[in-house]
Design brief:
The structure holds 2 protein chains of 2 kinds. By secondary structure, chain A is α+β, with helices and mostly antiparallel strands. Chain A has 2 domains: 180 residues, ATP-grasp fold, A domain (Dna Ligase, domain 1), CATH 3.30.1490; 129 residues, D-amino Acid Aminotransferase, Chain A, domain 1 (2-Layer Sandwich). Chain A has 11 helices and 13 strands. In chain A, the strands form 3 sheets. In chain A, strands 9-8-7-6-12-13 form a 6-stranded antiparallel beta sheet. A 5-stranded antiparallel beta sheet of chain A has the order 1-2-5-3-4. In chain A, helix 4 runs antiparallel to helix 6. Chain B is α+β, with helices and mostly antiparallel strands. Chain B folds into 3 domains: 186 residues, no CATH class; 270 residues, no CATH class; 106 residues, 3-Layer(bba) Sandwich (Glucose Oxidase, domain 1). Chain B is 51% helix and 10% strand. In chain B, helix 6 packs across helix 17. Chain B is globular and about 80 Å long. Classes of the chains: A alpha+beta, B alpha+beta. At the A-B interface, strand 9 and helix 11 of A face helix 3, helix 6, helix 13 and helix 14 of B.
């Protein structure tokens, strides 16, 4: 019912969901990700089995009318309340507890509890954002609660509606949950391994700002922006912006937005050496997957290590049909007519 | 297209006045180089890339011979479909040039068919023709070296008389002068035999890369194409070799004594076997590799290392210190080749289809095929041959000065090549007749006037362009050789009202950000002012400046693109550089603190 990220890969997605599989795949490829484990779909099934022994659950979803918002909302509220209140079967609670203790063996760290649905992050039908993620979860008790909340989020109004409108069989829909050490980020951001502006595959666009990545992803701050040659490492664009706020973890759990110190606002949040390290990581991930990636990363405040929080296939440019830039010709000299032939006229 | 409400224009040629007091010096330039009324209808730009300083009357032969050869290659030899040659005009010592585009579609089509039969033959037989070219160039150099030193004996040597030569020594003067001039015009034909075709093949690959990788930097493409063992690196390599030799022979302490080049050579000559052994090595390096001049070879005063050893010798103490510190000073050729190969492969891998990869392979292969010529010809043409040419003219100057035509042999460069021939004929005639030549009463005043005019012209800025701005600039010759596009013209036209007055934009030549003291070096004489860590700000650099690249922390030039010598050498030294800023030497003040961002092509004046 539990799997460690370092032992997982994309092939395990049916058991660990999209996020779990993707993080495991990164870890296995030698990319640093925050350590963690996955509460597999088998655990969800075990929990659901226990819950359904009292009253049916999936059958209700399968029969709800997706066009009736009122019906879906009422069902969602009912199911989520049931899931969050239901006790965890004894063996399951014990397994999660063992994993949690092992993760926190060296030092007590806050964890992220993230939904990892089996349909999520598929390149063709993105479920991204439909399930919940809980950051800075402080202890075991909260962790167990949030695991149930993640399961419950599979029955959010949006999720149910989406699922009912797409050809997913309800019995095949399951939810794994990733429990991962939180990174107390000095700097965090996103990286595209191709240019979001031109689709150029020879550059990487990196955006980052002080503090946790949620400020960048949520658009609450204008991040610093760099364009780095994927192969050369040459930094061709440096846009250092005025970074007014940053997200920091709260001691009681959750995130707070605070003002950035005046002296830090207009200075780069990444050194050239860190950008270079990030480039190397991005290239490794891209090569591993064989296609451009959309990556979330963070620099650990304490260790200075760069960790990847997520990597997904880039979808915007990859789906475009692009005419070939050139074709081979019988006589290579013919190529020069592009310059000499007046064809640009 | 939206036009700005107050579109700025360049002045018309007719509105550009000769600087008062210099009219006679201006009139000395040939009639066919003077602006005329019809020229107002055309677009002209100041060729500050090749001729950044006012040109003396004689030096203008370079413009004439070069445009004559460039034009014939484009117009009549290879038949470039869309462009003919380049016209040139001279005002206030400045060379303005204008291209002749072909616009009639029928004519373009006709020329295209010719081009395929001519240029394609060159591409297909490049190596053989280039080998043949090198032979021709070396033969031409040899024949220039064989020309006698012009001199007039009191009486014809008896041997000549007994041999029945039947031609007197004064005729040899004319013969030598005409062969000297003929050789120079011929050299420029050789120069342009391959050049445009070479640039064109390079730009074809460049264009492909810019389309396939829209955000690729110019210097990355340049790195994929640039040669590793090109002749341009040889002179500097020879200096490094000499530094190693000095240490091996144990004569290195002599180089720390602040001796002049002449004193040092004298010391070594008298200092035993080791000193003489090093001087032997020096001779091996000098011929031919010190036939490199300290400019682009277009001005008579750009002297060769061989004529003034102070420039190459200045860098020896530093190189010797590095050898003693354990550096080999060998260029890691194998490693550089491997890096270039890897770079090409890595970009190839990013292409999405096999079809694109095949096209990429064809284009990079062609670019590599042509590039040895693009890089290598300069050593033979602009350096070696040009040095021989100007030195031969200098010998005529010495002879004429001996006969009181001039106060100084260098005055000869104030005469046009026609005038010089007339002065030589004057001297020949006087020698024949036993009478006094007329030159001594004629030339000194004109020479003084022309020298004064050049000093005056240098004080006046000249507009970057004149006349009517064309909507599109797609003349491949102008785009290739001068990097001029509609965009760059707009930059020239912008006043600076909408741009940061402390920021200069140019081509990103070599990445890296450096802050330091700007040292404006407008001519080679000023190179010694550079202190370690200074940022060199110059009009244009060339390979002979390479040794000082070890001393400076960054380089900024007015002129040049990503394949210019300044850019190539800067990359070799890993030195941040911005080239082609247009007016860096006039906007940046000597001693100012500046920041050079070589990756973005931006120079910021910090104050």
């Amino acid at each position: 019912m539990i799997g460690w990220l370092a032992d997982l890969g994309l092939a395990d997605r049916p058991q660990v969901g999209g996020k779990g599989g993707s993080l495991g795949e990164l870890a296995r490829a030698g990319i640093a990700v925050p350590p963690g484990f996955v509460v597999k779909t088998a655990a969800f099934e075990r929990f659901l089995e226990s819950a359904e022994s009292e009253a049916p659950l999936r059958a209700l979803v399968a029969s709800v009318d997706p066009d009736s918002l009122a019906d879906v909302t009422a069902l969602s509220q009912q199911l989520r309340a049931r899931i969050e209140a239901a006790p965890l079967p004894q063996d399951l609670a014990a397994a999660i507890e063992r994993a949690y203790r092992k993760l926190n063996e060296s030092h007590q760290a806050a964890v992220a509890v993230r939904s990892s649905a089996t349909t999520e992050d598929a390149a063709d039908a993105s479920f991204a954002g439909l399930q919940d993620t809980y950051l800075w979860v402080q202890n075991l008790e909260q962790t167990l609660d949030k695991v149930r909340s993640c399961w419950g989020s599979l029955y959010s109004v949006a999720s149910i509606t989406y699922r009912r409108r797409h050809p997913f069989a309800e019995r095949d829909v399951a939810m794994a949950v990733v429990v991962q050490t939180m990174v107390d980020a000095r700097t965090a951001g996103v990286m595209f391994t191709r240019s979001p502006l031109t689709g150029d595959r020879s550059v990487m666009a990196i955006e980052g700002s002080w503090g946790l990545g949620s400020a960048v992803v949520g658009g609450e701050v204008t991040p610093d922006r760099w364009v780095v040659g994927k192969i050369t490492g040459e930094i061709s664009v440096r846009e250092i912006s005025d970074k007014q706020i940053r997200h920091v973890p709260l001691s009681e759990g959750g995130i707070q937005s605070v003002a950035v110190d005046e002296s830090q606002r207009r200075i780069p949040c990444m050194s050239d050496a860190e950008l270079e390290a990030l480039r190397v990581i991005g290239r490794k991930v891209e090569r591993h997957y064989g296609r451009p990636q959309d990556i979330e990363w963070a620099v650990d405040r304490h260790s200075g290590a760069i960790l990847l929080l997520q990597s997904r296939p880039e979808t915007v440019w990859s789906s475009r049909e692009v005419a070939p830039v050139g074709r081979p010709v019988d006589d290579p000299s013919l190529h020069v007519l592009k310059i000499f032939g007046g064809f640009n006229r | 297209m939206d036009m700005p409400a107050k579109a700025k224009q360049f002045p018309l040629p007719s509105s550009l006045k000769v600087v008062p007091g210099t009219e006679r010096a201006q009139a000395a330039y040939p009639y066919y180089t003077q602006f005329e009324a019809g020229d107002d209808q055309r677009f002209w730009f100041y060729n500050s890339m090749h001729f950044p300083e006012p040109m003396s009357a004689f030096d203008m032969v370079t413009a004439e011979a070069a445009y004559c050869a460039l034009g014939s290659a484009n117009t009549r030899v290879h038949c470039l479909p869309t462009t003919l040659g380049i016209d040139h005009r001279i005002i206030n010592g400045r060379v303005y040039i204008g291209g002749n585009a072909v616009t009639d579609p029928t004519e373009i089509a006709r020329r295209l068919e010719e081009f395929k039969q001519r240029a394609f033959y060159y591409y297909a037989n490049w190596e053989r023709l280039y080998d043949q070219w090198r032979e021709k160039m070396l033969a031409l150099i040899k024949s220039a070296q064989a020309l006698p030193t012009p001199q007039l004996p009191d009486l014809e040597p008896l041997a000549n008389v007994h041999a029945g030569r039947g031609i007197a020594s004064n005729h040899t003067l004319l013969d030598t002068y005409q062969k000297t001039l003929e050789g120079y015009f011929r050299m420029w034909h050789h120069h342009f035999e391959f050049l445009l075709l070479g640039y064109g093949a390079y730009l074809t690959f460049f264009d492909f890369c810019k389309k396939a990788f829209p955000e690729i930097t110019d210097q990355t493409i340049a790195r994929m194409v640039a040669g590793i063992e090109a002749e341009i690196f040889r002179p500097d390599d020879e200096l490094r070799r000499l530094a190693r030799c000095a240490v091996e022979l144990g004569i290195d302490p002599h180089f720390d004594k602040q001796l002049s080049a002449t004193q040092l050579i004298e010391t070594l000559r008298t200092e035993g076997e080791a000193g003489r052994a090093w001087l032997k090595e020096l001779e091996i390096s000098r011929h031919p590799w010190f036939n490199i001049n300290v400019g682009d070879g277009f001005y008579h005063y750009h002297r060769a290392w061989n004529d003034d050893l102070s420039m190459p010798f200045a860098s020896l103490p530093d190189y010797i210190a590095r050898v003693k510190a354990g550096e080999s000073l060998h260029r890691p050729v194998e490693k550089l080749l491997e890096e270039r190969k890897q770079l090409i492969e890595d970009y190839r891998e990013l292409l999405t289809t096999e079809e694109e990869r095949a096209a990429y392979d064809q284009m990079i292969t062609l670019a590599h095929r042509v590039f040895p010529y693009v890089e290598g010809h300069k050593f033979y043409c602009e350096h070696w041959y040009t040095n021989l040419f100007f030195n031969k003219i200098r010998e005529f100057g010495a002879l004429l000065a001996e006969h009181k035509f001039f106060g100084d042999a260098e005055d000869v460069f104030q005469l046009t090549h026609y005038e010089l021939e007339s002065a030589i004929i004057d001297l020949m005639t006087a020698w024949s007749n036993g009478s006094a030549p007329r030159g001594p009463g004629h030339w000194p005043k004109l020479v003084a006037e022309r020298r004064a005019a050049i000093r005056e012209w240098a004080k006046h800025e000249t507009p970057p362009a004149l006349g009517v701005v064309p909507d599109v600039i797609d003349d491949p010759a102008i785009v290739m050789l001068w990097g001029i596009t509609r965009e760059s013209l707009n930059t020239w036209l912008s006043t600076g009202a909408d741009s940061d007055p402390n920021e200069l934009k140019g081509f990103a030549a070599c990445r890296g950000v450096v802050e330091g003291t700007a040292r404006i070096v407008k001519s080679v004489d000023e190179i010694s002012r550079l202190q370690k860590g200074d940022i060199l700000v110059c009009q244009v650099t060339n390979p002979s400046w390479a040794p000082i690249f070890g001393k400076i922390s960054a380089a900024v030039s007015d002129i040049g693109g990503s394949m210019s010598h300044a850019a190539i050498v800067a990359r070799e030294y890993g030195l941040p550089a911005v080239v082609g800023t247009g007016n860096g030497t006039s906007r940046i003040k000597d001693g100012q603190r500046i920041r050079v961002d070589g990756g973005r092509g931006i120079v910021t004046i910090l104050g």
